[in-house]
Every structure is written in structure tokens, then in C-alpha cells.
Amino acid sequence: MAYTTINKSSAHFNTKLYTGTGSSQSITGVNFQPDLVWVKSRSNTSEQSLFDVVRGVNKRIRSNSDGVETTAGNSVTAFGSDGFTVVSHADVNTNNQTYASWNWKAGGSASSNTNGSITSNVSVNDTAGFSVVSYTGTEANATVGHGLSSAPSMIIFKELVQGYAWRVYHHSLANTQKLIFSTTAAVTTDAAAFNSTSPTSTVFSVGSSGGTNWSGAMIAYCFAEKQGYSKMGSYTGNGNVDGTFVYTGFKPAYVMIKKSSASGSGWVIVDTKRNPENAGATLRLLAQATSSESTDHLLDMLSNGFKIRDSDATLNTSGATFIYMAFAEAPLVGTNNVPCTAR
């Protein structure tokens, strides 16, 4: 029996690195039309930039800021069949700066979903467990259809008009608890965020919180676990350079980690395009920060998970809880029943 039905993870998620030119260029080699594009400069201080097919090109939100959606006509101007086009915006295409882009495939143009008490517009890739959901909030308890056939394990919410803070639901935490994407804050209790209700196979729930249900435009990125391709879980740090091993069931291509039990640690992003081998160094970016890439030896990507290799408090405080989201470079075993090799 196959361990996963997704033999080619890069058909659904891919990291693409590029160098800015200061003028219009097509970024190709993504391997699919990306429906969520997230760009960050590696070499310079810059804001994070997230674009998705449901809100449309040029519509930018920033994971490092609670600011509203902005229209940047010189940013990402097209989603192509193998990538995306950038023009001259400093945060996505400054001449000679190096950039990382993380790309997810949803389902292209959005369609209406009436499963919830609020009608949503969704772009869905059910095979890979990812959907982009837009809806108009009500400030009252409600449900929203996410388009997937299984319950999302992680949902990232952003209100687009008033500047309410990002909200993050993670199934390793209680459904009365939230994290804020744009800060280093610890998990806090907020029953109004998700109406104290876990997502189901058809809908997620929102309460009266402006961060998830303001009476205006909202966007949500929903991630459901798929065996051998994606994993959203948690681990406990041990404060030792021989740190925790986290089993994912695949060789990770991308891992994002956040200490949830205490404040002061950011959202660390590691990927294997910027770190092609386990050579004693890890290049990290921080989702909540404008800072450039930094170098540490934080973790090793292995054939079946990742291993913490640093006593750094950001990823390995003794006794602290950390949540993570990971996507595969290759499954441990695919439909051909051939195991992937170790790094």
C-alpha cells in the first residue's frame, strides 16, 4: 500500500529563489501556476509580501504587519503557468537583491461555497489539502465553507480593510487559543476568534473577533494534513544541541516553527532550496520580521522529519512547546513503494 498519493510534492508546493532586476521579469520554474505567492528579500531588509489568486494580482498583505491590504501595481502582476511576474517594487524586485518565494497551488479561479452560514469564495486543491478562502465577515458567530474534504489543521486569517491583527488557528492548540502571525507573542486565549469550535471537514468557525470576522473583507489560508506531503504538529524543546527529532513522514522542503508557550520568539522559516544540504548551517527568515536572512545551525532536514541541532531559545527552550507547519520535498514512500533517500 502506498504511503502517499502525492509522489511529486513540487507539483503542489515549491520554493523558488531568484535575483531582482529592478524591471519586469518572469519568475519561472515553480512547476505550476501558484495561487499563493509569498516573497521575501534574503539579502536586504524588506517587508514580507503575500499575494493570492482570490484577491488578485497586485493585492499585497504583509505577514510582518497588521496593516491593510494595499494595491501595488508594480509588484506581482501575473500568475503564470510556471510561476509569476514581478515588476519594480522594492520588496519583490530590487536590482541585485536575492529573494525567496514560497508558492502553493490551490485551484485557480475562485468558486462560490455555501456550506457555511457565510457564503465564501474558495480556490481549492483538495489533493494537497490547501484552499484560499475569501468572505465578508458579520461580527457574529458564524461558519465559513473552506472547500476541503477534511478539517484544516492550520488556518491563517487576515482582515483586509481595518488593520486587525493576523490570527492563526493550529490544531495542536485549543480551539479557544490563537497566535498572532505578525508578532513574537505567545499563544493567548480568545474564545471569540474561532467561536471555541474546531474546523470540520466542510467549515471553519468564527466568533465576534475582528481578526477573523470583521464586517468586511477577510482572507483565510487553510491547510489540511496530507500523509506524506504536509504536517502541522508540535514538539517540546529540550534546550540541548542534541535537540528534539520531529517525525513528519517525509523529507521536508519547508518548515515554519513558532514557540507557542512563551513570547519573544518569531516564526522561523527554513527551506531546502536555501539550505540544499545539511552542512552545519541553517539559513533562516522570520515571517513576522523585515530582517534579512541570518545564519545559524538550527536544524537538519532528514528523510523522515527534522532534527533540532541548536539550544537556541527560538526553537529549543527546555520544556517549551513549539508548533510547526511542514511541506515535503519527497515522501518517505510513494505509490511506487520506493523509499526516499536520507539527506
Q: Could you please describe the fold and organization of this structure?
A:
It contains 4 helices and 28 strands. It starts with 12 loop residues before the first strand and ends in a 12-residue tail after the last strand. Strand 7 and strand 8 (83-86) form a beta hairpin. The longest helix has 4 residues, at 90-93. The protein folds into 3 domains: 9-104, mini-chromosome maintenance (MCM) complex, domain 2 (Sandwich), CATH 2.60.320; 111-223, no CATH class; 230-331, no CATH class. The chain is mostly beta strands and 343 residues long. Helix content is 5%, strand content 40%.
In short:
Helices cover 5% and strands 40% of the residues. With 343 residues, it is mainly β. The longest helix has 4 residues, at 90-93.
Entry keywords:
six-stranded antiparallel sheet, 3 domains, mini-chromosome maintenance (MCM) complex, domain 2, single chain, mainly beta
Mass-distribution shape: globular
Mean pLDDT: 94
Radius of gyration: 19 Å
Total count of strands: 28
Biggest β-sheet strands, sense, barrel: 6 strands, antiparallel
Query: CA-to-CA gap between the ends?
Result: 25 Å
Percent of residues in helices = under 10%
Beta percentage is 35-45%
Strand arrangement within the widest β-sheet reads 10-11-12-19-14-15
**Structural class given helices, strands, pairing?**
mainly beta
Which segments are poorly predicted (pLDDT under 50) over 5 or more consecutive residues? Answer: none
Q: Please give the count of helices.
A: 4
Give the count of structural domains: 3
